[in-house]
Hints:
Elements: H1 10-18, E1 22-27, E2 30-34, H2 42-47, H3 64-68, E3 79-80, E4 86-87, E5 91-96, E6 116-120, H4 125-134, E7 139-142, H5 145-151, H6 157-160, E8 164-170, E9 179-182, H7 192-201, H8 204-211, E10 217-218, H9 241-250, E11 255-256, E12 262-263, E13 271-276, H10 282-294, E14 298-303, H11 306-314, E15 320-323, H12 336-339, H13 374-385, H14 389-406, E16 409-411, E17 413-414, E18 417-423, E19 426-427, E20 447-448, H15 450-462, E21 470-473
Parallel strand pairs: 8-21, 13-14, 13-15
Antiparallel strand pairs: 1-2, 3-5, 4-5, 5-6, 7-18, 8-18, 9-15, 9-16, 10-17, 11-12, 19-20
Amino acid sequence: FYLSDYIQAPYYANFWSTEFTNITRYDDLTFSVAVPRLKPDMADKVLREAPVPMHFYDELGPDFPERYQWRYQPHAGPYSLAEQDVDMGVRLVLRRKQDWWAKDNKYWRNLFNPDQINLSVVRDPAKRYEAFRRGDSDMFRIATAEMWYDNLPEDDPDVANGYLHKSTFYNGGPRSNWGLWMNSTRYLLDNQDIRSGIQFAMNWQLVIDNYFRGDMERLRTQTDGYEDFSHTGLAARPFDIERATEYFAKAGFSQRGPDGILTNEQGERLAFTLTTHYDRFADVFTILKEEAIKAGLELRIEILDGAAGFRKASEKQHEIYFVSFNAPPAMYPDYWQYFHSDNAYDDAFLDDGSINPERKVKPQTNNLQGVAVYEIDQLIDRYEESEDREQMIELSQQISQMHFDYASYSPGFVEPFYRTAYWRWVRWPEGFNHKNTSYPYELFVHWIDEDIKAETRGARRGGQAFEPVIQVYDQFRIQ
C-alpha cells in the first residue's frame, strides 16, 4: 500500500522499502516479518505498524484521496464508525466494540474506556470553549497560559465550587520541536552567517517569560527527549544583539537604515518572511519581530490557514516557517526525513561529494530547512545501517552537533506538560495518564461516571459546592 505511486508519502515509502525485506502471511494467526538490520528497537518497529486490508483498496488509483477520504477502513481497533454516525463536516460518533478482542488483554485492559465518543466540529476556539463551559463537552485541553490563568482561573465559580477540575500533567518522551525552520535553499538564507545571526536575534526567552508566563522551557535542539540519543550538551543560542550583528556583518550587512534594519553595500535590507499557520501564537511572532529589529533584522509575519501554510512549506516556497512536528514515541530520532539531502534536492551531490550544479529543490518532503551537507548524509547513512546502540548514540550526537552548527533551526519552546480542564464526572486513574502521551484523551484511560454526572449537575443547579480539585502530576518531570 505505502509503496504505491498513488500514495504521496515519501517518508512511508522509504520506511517500508528500506526497513522491511519480506512480510509473509501463513494463515489467520501466523505471519513473519523480515528486516534487513537488527536495530535496537526492532520489536517495536516491527509490531507497531498496523496492517492494511488489501481488499479494501482494490480501487486504489490516482484519485486516491477523493475516492477514499470518506470510506471507513476495516481495522482491529476498539472503536467502530458506522455510516449513520457520520454527519459530514459536523460530527462523528465512535462506538466501542463490546466484543473487542483485546479488551481483557493484559496490556490493553483499562484503556479505551468510553463506550461512545462524540467528535464535533467547532472551528471557532471561542465557541469550543463556550460549549465546554455549558457542559456540551466533557473536557477541554488548555493550550495557552491566557486560557489557564485568565479565562479559567482558580477563583472561577465552576472551579472554586468543584464542578470543573484542572490538571497539569508532566509527560515524557520525544518533544515537539516548536521553532523556526529556515529554508537554506533560499537567497541569503543559504549563508550560514545569516542563519547564525538569526539564531542570536530571536528572543525566545522573552516569549517564554512574557507570553507563556514562565511555564514553558527552551528547547535545546530539534531532537530533544530521546534520552541518551539526544545531545544534552548542546544549548540553544541566547538572544544576543552583539553576536547577531557580528554574524550579519560577516555576511555583508553592517549599515543600519533609518528604521534600524541592516543593509548591505547593494542596499538590500536584511528582511525575511516568517510564515506560519498557527494564528493562536500571533503575539509570539509580535515579540520576535519587535526584538529582532534591535539586531537589525526585519521579520515580515505571514499567517496563513493550515492548508495554505503547510502547502507553502511543503513546496519549499517559504523563507522561515514556524512549525512543530509531533514526535511519536521512539527510542531514537529519525534524522533522514529532516536532514538528509535526499529530501532537500533531487540529486544534491556528484559522486565525489561536490555540489551538483544542476540540482533542483525537492518538494513534498519534511526537510523544510533544505539541509544538504555531504558529511551529514554520510553520518545519517551509517546511523540508518547501524545495529549497535552505542554506535548509534555516538552518531546521533555527531549529527545533532553538525545540524546545530548548520544553524538552520532556531529552537523555540517546549511544553513539558499538558493541561486539561474537565467536568467532575470525568474520572482518571491514579497518576492521571501514561508517561508518553501528548494529549489527555490519547489512550482514553478516563471514564465517565454517570452517577457523579447527575450529582454534579444537580448540585450546580442547587448551589451545592464540592471541594475544588487542581492537580499537578509531576512524577515524570525531568528536572
